[in-house]
TrEMBL record:
Protein name: Uncharacterized protein DUF2795
Listed InterPro entries: DUF2795
Region (Disordered): 44-63
Species of provenance: Prauserella shujinwangii
Amino acid sequence: MARPNPITMQKYLSGVHYPCSRDELVEHARDQGADGDVLEHLRSLPDRTYDGPNAVSAEYSRT
């Protein structure tokens, strides 16, 4: 799986309502037209509640 650019990933998460789960992040990104690489990378994040974009970015940088 290619690692999507973090800016691209955050573009697809624009407007998501936090706090939210990993599955909600994936669903929102899919609804915004995210490509397969972005969706797969989001699915690989830990299954937990994220309280904001900084929390998502922090996990993103670890995977």
